[in-house]
Design a protein that fits this description.
A hairpin with a 2-residue loop joins strand 7 and strand 8 (425-426). The protein has helices at 2-9, 19-31, 58-67, 98-101, 125-128, 131-138, 153-162, 181-184, 211-217, 223-253, 261-265, 270-275, 289-329, 334-337, 347-381, 386-414, 447-482, 494-499, 508-525, 533-554, 569-592, 595-605, 614-618, 664-694, 700-735, 740-758, and strands at 35-39, 51-55, 71-76, 107-111, 193-194, 205-206, 421-422, 425-426, 619-623, 644-648. The radius of gyration is 35 Å and the shape is elongated. Helix 7 runs antiparallel to helix 20 and helix 15 (347-381) crosses helix 17. It is mainly alpha-helical and 760 residues long. It holds the Pfam family Anoct_dimer. Residues 202-709 form the Anoctamin transmembrane domain. Belongs to the anoctamin family.
Length: 760
């Protein structure tokens, strides 16, 4: 229990105001065998703060290393070092040279036993336990001032690794694109008059006015994107499988092979012990009443915040519907420069960009508040163990972040432009009384708008996250310098300089995991709409590594070491996102992209197996005289000789017996889309599961090392026990000689012991 109190301090030095509590705490530490050293307050800058340094002698370290079953070396490894990952040589330019990191030889390790000290390779007791182990046992290791250790490990990391200019790399991108010539052709696109895209404010417009946006859309909306989406579905599986192998290797190298999850379950949170004292059980459910109420409140809070996100998304959609008409109404000469804001921006693009920016601001605001709410409701549930606390917080945070970051992308991908209606019977968001007509896709397709949304939200999040990580510690450092707390290193002790650094909290790595998982979702769930998303992620990760390296070596105190066999709940989240990404990309290619209609036209409609005539085929005809007055422009901005306009759909023309009903081509395209989804999903899933089955989770050399280590532990322990028994028998013969008859039972007993040991 006293050790737990030390762990909760999470620091190497501390200052306790109440004198009695401080003395009692120090007395408890001394009872445990720890050595205390107090720095006089006159040596501190403010002449008020005492710094208490805690030293752990060998007997304390050995005691708790035995209790915690910490694995230590007993024999140098005789196993050849295998290749860690395929193409490992590519990462050599990014690694520190051996002259700086001073690599240690590989050892076979075994759980420490304080009664068998001679069994382990102990050359120097003061350095036998590494700093991370002593940190885990004591919440800190022996402190040395900067003057006595000018080249500390932290300084070496900062000097040779953490600076921004010490990295490099190369990237290459090849993009295949298809340009629709018919849209830009004056004789084709210039002769097609399109129906208004909104009521009253939007005029009739020429199709060739969207030439630029159409060209931009076809940068990503092409046949190559299908193969890239399939490749990414398989790449996700390879990434996760190779991560499992990497995890297995680290698990062995960091002595976590025999680390039981039950050890984490035994780490009961102090908050649980303090608050869960009196619990009344429900006689029927046998569940504590208080616990049911807390869980109900927690679930209601999560649902409320998710509903709040949905409400904000609906508000942004309403903004898009309203502002589009405003952008369209500023056009003065619609027949020449129809729907151009400036020179290159259409009202659709301007609306999409502004709405995406507003949505990003809302995301950041909601995220700021919900992070605190998630921690509050998790604390309210009072989880029993630290592992349970982290898993619950992980699920709450990811569920909220998933809805918060991805909901707008799901709307653009799967809902926008799908429920529009047609000129005589348009659909409205809240009914016709709202006058908010459901928005249509950009003339170049909805894929370019999904790309815009994805780029703004993803890049904005990355930029804002890096600014926060770099700027906030700098502001704190600047504020401390203004207050006179940040002083030259040669003026004050090392521990006082580190005292003003930021404390690395228990949730420090949690936010790093969350950031990477959200980024993983961006580059997998919607990669079909923006194939360059992995490139953005790579650039961000390079910058993130540099920022984190600088932050950990200059702005934070040393974290308290803790053990874990894997990344916990994040592993299951990554697997779920990987499976969902196959479905989302298949639906994006089928329903958001125009690839399927083009393929149907090319192979089933076109007589010469070319794309000639595709634009005219994909647009339906409507009689202008049949458009209701509520949908007509305020001014008749079109040639009176033109009696029809075109719109994006597959419907029968006016005068047909099934006027304005869906044509058979519409149903053929819908069937092709569903067939494509089924085929793509099954192909990718079959390949995914085959690759997952083909690649073992644990490398063969790691398996061999583990078996070799376990064999050597048994062999060496057997030999060690035999030698120790021999020494004990020899000592007993010398000190207490017996007759031949009295020795027989002892010898028989010793033989039995040796026989039992030999059975190992």
């Amino acid at each position: 229990m006293k050790l737990r109190v030390c762990v909760r301090l999470k620091c190497l030095w501390f200052y306790v105001c109440p004198q009695e509590r401080r003395r009692e705490f120090e007395a408890n530490l001394e009872k445990e065998g720890l050595e205390l050293e107090t720095e006089d307050k006159s040596d501190s800058k403010d002449h008020k703060t005492y710094f208490l340094k805690i030293h752990a002698p060998w007997n304390v370290l050995a005691k708790y290393a035995d209790i915690l079953k910490i694995k230590v070396p007993f024999k140098e490894s005789d196993f050849p070092h295998g290749r860690e990952v395929p193409l490992e040589f590519l990462s050599c330019p990014f690694r520190l040279p051996d002259s700086i990191i001073h690599p240690q030889p590989d050892y076979f390790t075994s759980p420490f036993d304080k009664n068998k000290v001679e069994f382990f390779l102990i050359s120097d007791k003061s350095t036998f336990f590494p700093p991370s182990t002593r940190n885990r046992i004591l919440c800190g290791s022996r402190v040395k001032s900067r003057n006595s250790e000018p080249e500390s490990e932290r300084y070496n990391l900062y000097k040779h690794w953490a600076r921004f200019l010490l990295w490099g790399g190369w990237l290459s991108v090849k993009v295949c694109f298809y340009i629709s010539k018919e849209i830009c052709d004056a004789e084709v696109g210039g002769s097609i008059l399109m129906c208004p895209l909104c009521d009253k404010k939007c005029p009739f417009w020429k199709l060739n006015s969207t030439c630029l946006s159409s060209w931009q859309s076809h940068l990503f909306d092409n046949e190559g994107t299908v193969f890239f989406a399939i490749f990414m579905g398989i790449w996700v599986t390879l990434f996760l499988e190779f991560w499992k192998r990497r995890q297995a290797r680290l698990e062995y190298e960091w002595d976590l092979v025999d680390f039981e999850e039950e050890q984490q379950q035994l780490q009961i949170r102090p908050e649980f012990e303090i608050k869960c004292t009196n619990r009344r059980l429900n006689k029927i459910t046998q569940v504590p009443f208080n616990r049911c109420a807390r869980y109900s409140l927690s679930a209601a809070t999560v649902l409320f915040w998710i509903s709040l996100i949905v409400a904000c998304i609906i508000g942004v959609i309403a903004y898009r519907l309203a502002v589009y008409a405003a952008f369209a109404s500023i056009i003065k000469d619609p027949m020449r420069r129809i729907q151009l804001v400036g020179r290159f921006i259409t009202p659709q693009l301007a609306t999409s960009v502004t709405a995406s920016c507003i949505n990003f601001v809302i995301i950041m605001i909601l995220n700021f508040f919900y992070e605190r709410v998630a921690i509050w409701i998790t604390d309210l549930e009072i989880p029993k163990t630290h592992l349970e606390y982290e898993n619950r917080l992980t699920m709450k945070m990811f569920l909220f972040q998933f809805v918060n970051y991805y909901s707008s992308c799901f709307y653009v991908a799967f809902f926008k432009g799908k429920f529009v209606g047609y000129p005589g019977d348009y659909s409205y968001m809240f009914g016709k009384w709202s006058k908010l007509r459901n928005e249509e896709c950009d003339p170049g397709g909805c894929l370019i708008e999904l790309t815009t949304q994805l780029v703004i939200v993803m890049a904005g999040k990355q930029l804002w996250g890096n600014i926060q990580e770099a700027l906030l510690p700098l502001l704190r450092t600047w504020w401390n310098s203004r207050r006179g707390r940040h002083n030259p290193e040669n003026q004050y002790s090392r521990w006082e300089q580190d005292y003003i650094l930021l404390n690395f909290t228990q949730l420090g790595l949690f936010y790093e995991y969350l950031e990477m998982v959200i980024q993983f979702g961006f580059i997998t769930l919607f990669v079909a709409s923006f194939p360059l998303a992995p490139l953005l992620a790579l650039c961000n990760n390079i910058l993130e590594i540099r920022v984190d390296a600088w932050k950990f070596t200059t702005q934070f105190r040393r974290p308290v070491a803790s053990k874990a066999r894997n990344i916990g709940a994040w592993k299951e989240i990554l697997n779920a996102v990987a499976i969902l990404s196959v479905v989302t990309n298949a639906f994006i290619m089928a329903f958001t992209s125009d690839m399927i209609p083009r393929m149907v036209y090319l192979y089933a409609i076109s007589r010469d197996k070319s794309m000639k005539g595709y634009i005219s085929n994909s647009l339906s005809v409507y009689n202008i005289s049949q458009i209701p007055k509520t949908n007509m422009p305020e001014e008749n901005w079109y040639d009176n000789s033109t009696v029809t306009c075109r719109y994006r759909d597959y419907r029968y023309p006016p005068g047909h017996m099934r006027e304005y009903d869906h044509t058979m081509q519409f149903w053929h395209i819908l069937a092709a889309k569903m067939a494509f989804i089924i085929i793509m999903e099954h192909v990718v899933f079959v390949v995914k599961f085959f690759v997952a089955w083909l690649i073992p989770d644990v490398p063969s050399d790691v398996k061999a090392r583990i078996k070799r280590e376990r064999f050597l532990i048994q062999e060496y322990l057997h030999n060690y026990e035999v030698e120790r028994l021999k020494l004990q028998l020899s000592a007993s013969f010398i000190t207490e000689p017996h007759s031949e008859t009295t020795l027989t039972p002892d010898m028989t007993l010793t033989s039995d012991k040796l026989e039992v040991l030999s059975e190992c």
